[in-house]
Design goal:
The chain starts with a helix and ends in a 15-residue tail after the last strand. Helices cover 5% and strands 45% of the residues. The chain is mainly β. Strand 5 and strand 6 form a beta hairpin. The protein has one domain: PRC-barrel domain (SH3 type barrels, Roll), CATH 2.30.30.
Length: 88
């Protein structure tokens, strides 16, 4: 079992381009099913002139693997993965 505080310390990385997206700042739960539907992540912009933060959503279906210190996601990729063969 994993605690919410444990997963919020993990960095989100998109396997499509290897980009570090940031860290989880909030979790959306489906109250009726009791399951996690998505995560809100906050990351810093890579632009030199823009020093704000970006907030984005990662859906549960996009998560490929939750590792020791990172969460691998597949966002914006045409790759097809068999969800039954992915360890989470």
């Amino acid at each position: 079992m994993m605690r919410i505080s444990d997963i919020m310390e993990k960095e989100i990385i998109n396997i499509k381009n290897g980009k570090k997206l940031g860290f989880i700042t909030d979790i959306d739960l489906d109250i009726e099913s009791g399951k996690v539907s998505s995560f809100l992540i906050t990351g810093t912009s890579g632009s030199f002139f823009y020093r704000g933060t970006e907030v984005d959503t990662v859906f549960w279906r996009d998560i490929l693997r939750i590792g020791y210190d990172t969460v691998l996601v597949n966002i914006g990729s045409s790759l097809n993965f068999d969800k039954d063969q992915i360890d989470i």
